[in-house]
Design brief:
The protein is α+β, with helices and mostly antiparallel strands. It contains 4 helices and 10 strands.
Length: about 170
């Protein structure tokens, strides 16, 4: 206690001051409680409506593992080959398509120029390309067939192009 000249006054100072005061933590607000309750009730409802029988679970698992073989896996691009860039890239209706899993020599080499000359014989023909959904540079990626024959397989059989197994995403070759 300090003494003030005019009044005798109690002043909190020195070691009597409470320094580490614990505050009471507030409970979650009503909105948070309502949200948690809603999520819990919704989960319980979904659990009751779910079918967990052995037959339904095995049926769902087999459907997930084995997709139907007749269903196309990607978008189909069909049209005339308007330009041949090199052995593994051509344009279908002006859209550049990179042939998936095909590794051809570059155009800067003499072997690459021979491969490109071979591929140019298909210019003007109708190509049907099943796109994988991938893109590389400005090109879409896909497996193409010309006249019912797989273009990638033709290039691997009749030129020095090789299989690039890393990019054979649908295990066609």
């Amino acid at each position: 206690m300090r003494r003030n000249r005019k009044h005798l006054k109690l002043v909190k100072s020195g070691p009597w001051r409470r320094r580490n005061v614990r505050r009471r933590k507030n409970l979650p607000s009503n909105t948070i409680l309502l949200c948690v309750l809603f999520v819990l009730f919704h989960a319980a409802y979904q659990y009751q409506e779910a079918d967990f029988s052995f037959s339904s679970l095995t049926e769902k698992a087999t459907q997930a593992i084995a997709p139907t073989p007749n269903k196309p896996r990607g978008k189909i691009l069909e049209g005339r080959i308007t330009h041949v860039r090199d052995g593994d890239t051509f344009e279908v209706n002006g859209i550049p398509v990179r042939i998936s899993a095909l590794d051809c020599p570059e155009n800067s080499t003499s072997v690459g120029q021979k491969v490109t000359r071979f591929a140019k014989q298909f210019k003007g023909q109708i190509a049907v390309c099943e796109l994988t959904g991938a893109k590389t540079y400005d090109r879409v990626v896909g497996y193409c067939s010309i006249g019912g024959k797989d273009f990638g397989k033709t290039m691997m059989d009749q030129t020095s192009c090789k299989l690039w197994a890393k990019y054979d995403v649908w295990n066609r070759y």
